[in-house]
Amino acid sequence: MFYNIQQYGGQQAIITKERQLTYIELQQLADSYLFTSENKELIVLLGDNEVEIVAAYIAALQARHAVMLLSPALNRELLIQIVSNYRPRWIVAINNSEEIQLQGYVQRNKMLERLEDVRTAIHPELAVLLSTSGTTGSHKFVRLSYRNLQANAQSIADYLELNQTERAILNLPLSYSYGLSILNSHLQVGASVLLTGESIIAKSFWSFVQEQQATSLPGVPFTYQMLQRVGFMKMDLPHLKTLTQAGGRLDQRLVQLFGEYARDNNKRFYVMYGQTEAAPRISYVPSDRLLEKPSTIGIAIPGGQLSLDPESNELIYYGENVMLGYAESLEDLAKGDVCNGVLHTGDVATVDEDGYYTITGRMKRFVKLFGLRINLDEVERKLEALLAQPVACTGNDDKLIVVTESEVLVDAIKQHVQELYKLHPTAFRVKVLEQIPRFANGKINYSALKDE
Amino acid sequence: MNNEQKLRNIFAEALQININLVVDDLTYNSIPEWDSIAHMTLISEIDNAFDTMLDTDDVLDMSSFAKAKEILAKYDVQF
């Protein structure tokens, strides 16, 4: 298992600006977290990219407790709700534990401990709980087993050809599945992780990269936009051999640009696809084929399989890394595997003659009314063009719902929808909300919209 | 409007903060509004407004309002 780290002894495990820990020292630090209990408990880790969080994470896994990783940027109210909903036995909150005074918890050693003795039933295979929506989140978590994490760590190590000489930058949050997978896959092979919370636009980040001779750098699409702007391609980084990208579709122009840069500079650039539900890696484009297949999500990771639903073209993934299921309450932690290794990704895709997949849209943005498939994004676009006002569409398979922020538009919307889609008035509804719920980046928050 | 005022407006706009908060020792990451996303917006607004194309080092170095003026001076923007 990737978390049985003692075997790597004196090899460097975690390096930060302030300290360097060998695998033995990391194990010693993990041993200072005394998660002693006769029962399987839930532990909340609140904090990103800190050595102490890594140590507590390893300690929790070794003791076969379940770990919930939360972002320290999480809204206070939501944190209180999650804690009262899931009743963790321990909370590890580095740096700010004094500030976090939670009712029913006391500070004991390096963590907060629940005062009340309640027995919680947790499935023996449950290892990690990750939020599907980051800091804006809900109470919904993905349940990952030890086997899920191990399978994914091994697959990633295989296709990225990781070995002990790697020195991977890890600046993505550990509470984010992509960040966590970098840690797991590097622990798996006894490599070194360069842990930092700094962004690539901080000058000190680049001196860390250079001094520590980082060999790989991960990024989400926005990271690559920034890398381009800060002139990454002109930097002299002889040790940096691998770039990875995940966390959303990267603009094809940037895929091309970084692909060519990698080819010309004897580096490897991996475009990858995944979902937290798969711990998270699902597919990757082998770096030597990227320029041939720049718009694809590539092929399944080692040990996994992809296929398309013959009717809907939904991308379906099969593998040992597919989650046990979701959890929305404490009771759900007792549940076993409800997915059986099959993940319906919710993405619609095509596959080419070489077996490379390309995502063409999202399943859930369709409603099927009277056998007619209606693309919600398209309805939105058409209505916005006609009205010059924002609208948001949602719905289920018996009703289309159009949300507007303006009461006076209701009749016009009804008329347009009837004309455009020849829909019977009972098949759709126009709703007025004071504000269409949005994420900080301005994108519509459809899950919140659905709850309205 | 002089360049100092122009730059202050750009900062207030890009970081979405009150213009009174834009002072010399306003530094990157010292307020939640000035994160990496806002920083990239800031750089692109500065490039547009002053018709510059800031170098890598300058993009990374621009860690305070005072520093921004110092850097822009190299591009012949007078303060």
Structure description:
By secondary structure, chain A is an alpha/beta fold. Chain A is built from eleven helices and 26 strands. Chain A has helices at 23-31, 51-62, 76-86, 146-159, 177-189, 203-211, 221-229, 252-264, 376-387, 410-421, 446-451, and strands at 12-15, 20-22, 42-46, 66-70, 90-93, 105-108, 111-114, 126-131, 141-145, 167-170, 192-195, 216-219, 242-245, 268-274, 281-284, 299-300, 305-308, 314-318, 325-327, 342-351, 357-362, 366-369, 372-375, 391-396, 399-404, 428-432. Chain A has an eight-stranded mixed sheet. In chain A, strands 12-13-14-15-16 form a five-stranded mixed sheet, with helices on both faces. In chain A, strands 2-1-11-10 form a four-stranded mixed sheet. In chain A, helix 8 (252-264) links the parallel strand 13 (242-245) and strand 14 (268-274). The relative contact order of chain B is 0.19. The longest helix of chain B has 15 residues, at 36-50. Chain B has 79 residues and is mainly alpha-helical. Chain B is globular and about 30 Å long. Chain B has one domain (3-74): ACP-like (Non-ribosomal Peptide Synthetase Peptidyl Carrier Protein, Chain A), CATH 1.10.1200.10. The mean pLDDT of chain B is 90. At the A-B interface, helix 7 of A face helix 2 and helix 3 of B.
